[in-house]
Each structure stands twice: as structure tokens, then as C-alpha cells.
Amino acid sequence: MSLLESIGEQQATALARIEAAADTAALEQVRVSVLGKKGSLTALLRGMGAVPPEERAQVGAAVNTTRDAIEAALTKRQQLLAQAELDARITADAVDVTLPGRAHPIGTQHLISRLTDEIVEVFRGIGYRVVDGTEIETDYYNFTALNAPPDHPSRGLQDTFYVVDRSGDEAAVQGESDVLLRTQTSGVQVHTMEDQELPIYILAPGRVYRRDTADPSHLPQFTQIEGLVVDKGITFGDLKGTLDYFCKQIFGPDRKTRFRPHFFPFTEPSAEVDVSCGICGGAGCRFCKGTGWLEILGCGMVDPNVYGYVGIDPERYSGFAFGVGVERVACLKYNVPDLRMLLEGDMRFLRQF
Questions:
Q1: What distance in Å separates the CA atoms of residue 86 and residue 94, rounded to the nearest whole number?
Q2: Mean pLDDT to the nearest integer, 303-323
Q3: Count helices and strands in the chain by DSSP H and E runs
Q4: Beta partners for 215?
């Protein structure tokens, strides 16, 4: 076979391979095998020195013609295959707008956070403002300034988490540490009476800690909201009216309230507030243990001794305080039988609210 015949055969073979290439990757392999550094047509060009002088012009022209034909075929096939691949990707990625949408679950506020905000808004609506305090408190603000005697049971290690230096635990063992995790947000009222001008109408929400074993009605950590009013002419009637309004806003206008005498170190007189059972309407059922009433919070008139710690004249000013556990409100509002259910993170339960 002559050299010119070999060049013609290479052209025909290359054009056939180009036409048969199924995709751009296969087409690139054809280009490299023919026109690459080690390609068959490139080898012919490099071997032109061995061609007799009288044939070089004719052979060179044939090689150039073949290369031009192959390059043109490659360009044309490349455009066709690239367009076909683009069309295939567009078809594969197309969105069928007639298909039903895929619903993605959206996160919501936890019930306790939402109920805390709801309670805060009730009191904001009647002129209260929100104040905050630290979760690590001193014995003075958590107990002493709230008129708790030195031998009060709540000061004991069995009820309170004391914070001590890592260098030694003896202070906690002996009950000598005066730094603790607050057992109530009531300490915020002492700070407020020390730092702010009268009159005072505040609400103090926050986490509190007690050495309780978790059970259906107790938690070692929960959310408490403390309320405090100090002004001229405040009476127990103002306290009753305020808390009755609060209970009706949270539980519904048909719910009744009652006040039972109780004792708290920092209020005198003191009371516990009950709200009528929402399940039986006050007739008596298993949820309210047959009484028709559910305990909701503790309250009372601020003890004059407390005013002595903050420099307020009890002859000119009077006030009341109350504390409510948000988890307890949630259980009573939604008839939840166990406080622990609010903290277990079971989404099947939490999505009900």
C-alpha cells in the first residue's frame, strides 16, 4: 500500500470513529489517538523526512487535507454531542410542577418557652416590666434578705445546690459556702428594691434549681416567674384581683380562683392560690383528686422585715409578691399528668401544643 493510500485509509477510519463516538468523552479519546502527540496522523507528519523529495509536496498536502477534514468532523461532532448531553441534563433535572410538594417540618418554640412568653405578656399588658437575674446567687439574696431564718430547712444541703471552690469541698460539706444555684427567682426582687426607684411593678422569669428527685410533680430544674409590686396603698385586695385576672387570662374566663392561708418567710400574710379544675369544672375528678381545685402558685404581702434589708419605709409603702412555676402551669393548662414529659424531648408529645 502506498503512503497516499495509507493517509486516505487513516482519514476514513478516523471519520468513522468520530461518527460512532457516543459522548464527548469518547470523542476526546478519538482526537487524542489521531491528533495527539502520539497520534497516528502526528506520526506521519514527523516522518516526512523519510519521504523521497519528489513525493514530499504531494504527501504533505494529503496529510494537511486529512487533518483539516478530521478537525472539522471533530468540531461538528463535539457540538452535537455537547448539545445532546445538555438536553439530557435539563430533562433529568426538570421539576414537575404538577407533583405535590414535599413538606419539611418547621421547628417551633418549646411549650415552656411559649408559655413563659404568654405569661409575661399578660403582666406586661397591666404595666409590669421584665427584669433578669443571675442563676448563681449568694445566700444573702436567696435566703437572708428574704427573711429566711438561719435554720430554715430550705438552706440545708438536702434542698439547695451550693457552689464551692474546686480546691476543696469541705465548705459545702459543712454548709459554709454562701454561693449557690438559686432556688427561686425571689432574689431578683431584693436586687430590684435595692437598685431601682419606687414604685416597682416587675416580673422576673428564669430557671431555678432544687435538690429534688424528678417525679410527676417535682423537677430539680424548672422555670419560675416571680412577680413583685411595691407602691403606696397596695392591699391584699390588689393581690387577689391581679392573680384572679392572671388565672382567667391563662386558663380561661370561666375558671375560678381561691386563696388558702399558707406560710412563706418573705410574705405576711401568705396564701396559696388554687384554680378550679378544667376537666370536671370544679365537681371533682381524678385529676384534681376529687377536690375540684388545683394548686397553682404561692403569694402574699411583702413582709415588712424584707423592706428593712433594702431601706424601704414599710409605713409609707406596701406591696405583694407571687411565684409561679411555668411547668406546673403547663401541666394544669393542658392536663399533662407528669412534669417529666415536658423535658423528655419526645416530639410526638411536644407537637400537640
A1: 12
A2: 95
A3: 12, 9
A4: 218
Q: What's the full length of the chain, in residues? A: 353
Give the cell for residue 211.
Answer: 435538690
Give Dmax (Cα) for the chain: 131
pLDDT digits 0-9 by tens, 92-110: 888 777 888 788 877 788 9
Where is average pLDDT lowest: 71-85, 155-169, 237-251? 155-169
Please write the tens of the pLDDT for every residue from 205-243. Answer: 999 999 988 888 888 999 999 999 999 999 999 999 999
Question: C-alpha cell of 255?
Answer: 375558671
C-alpha cell belonging to residue 280: 370536671
Q: Which CATH number fits domain 112-350: 3.30.930.10, 3.40.50.11540, 3.30.450.20, 1.10.3210.10?
A: 3.30.930.10
List, as one string, the DSSP characters of 257-270: EEEEEEEETTEEEE
Q: Domain coordinates of the chain in residue numbers?
A: 3-93, 112-350
Q: Which residues pair with 180 in a beta bridge?
A: 137, 162
CA dist., res. 302 & res. 264, Å (int): 10
Cα torsion angle, 123, 132, 331, 260, sign: negative
Compute CA distances 232 → 53, 125, 170, 312, whole Å. Answer: 123, 21, 46, 11
* 100: preceding bond cis by omega (within 30 degrees): no
Neighbours of 107 (CB within 10 A): 5
Q: Nearest to residue 203, comparing CAs of 226, 185, 229?
A: 226
Is residue 206 within 8 Å of residue 179, measured between CB atoms?
Answer: no
CA–CA separation, 217 and 257 (whole Å):
21
- The single-letter DSSP state of residue 312 is -
